[in-house]
Amino acid sequence: MAAPIEIQPPGLVGWAGRPILMNIAHQHDDLELNLVAEGGTMLYLFGGVPVEVGPGCVAAFWAAVPHQLVASSATRAHWVHVPFATFLSWGLPTALVGRLLSGTPLVTPPSAAMETDSANFAQWAEDLSSEHPERRRIAMLEVEARVRRLALATPGQPVHHYTGGDPALVQVVAMVRHIAEHFREPLTVADVARAARLHPNYAMAQFRKVVRTTVVDYLTRCRLAEARRLLVTTDLPIADVASESGFSSVSRFYTAFRSGCGMPPATYRREHRHGELR
Q1: Residue 44 is inside which H or E element, if any?
Q2: Which of 88, 112, 125, 248 makes the best surface tag, with the fewest CB within 10 Å?
């Protein structure tokens, strides 16, 4: 059984600082925006897929997909979190909402960076911490506008994969990519190790060294993330959600979901389903 997934309460917040590597993948029900303001790149494992966010680049993603910062040469970054319900209330184009909820991050290319991004992110953090409702409303309107501009700058953009030289990280990237591509199927540790051409025991050690959890726990987290997406964006029966997410039985799905998400699947769907996606 997977260790409990960190699900933070939704909040409308912004802050800045030096990126800190994550000991474990986490997730939370909101839209997350990142900006690398100074230094080099941030490397995430995002739903099992490596994604680099370079200097001056803005990234936006649905943070319910497990994500983990595993390498960084950035010295300062900005973050903004938008509650899931607020994000849905924006009435964004269906294609954009679908792309974000599919687990694909939007990352601006350097050519689409805006000179005002760093100042804007700093202003949003200040406004969102204010007790003044109008300042918070203005910040929220500006964040929404930035997401819309980001979507215009990244139509059909492919995910940029890790090309660094750390051998352990390269091996783990191969394994998490295999998990991301095959988590809906029956999958064993040996299958995952084979993707990196490693012995299973060595593969598990390398995986834990970088991701700070086991292959099995990470696989379960990916399956739960897909289940959460399906619960929010489809009318599939719970049994079909379990199957489509890669769980071998409904009972295993219920056990993992309650342990990882703190509530039954039906309750999660009821609390997070919104008319915009129906």
Answers
A1: strand 30-46
A2: 248
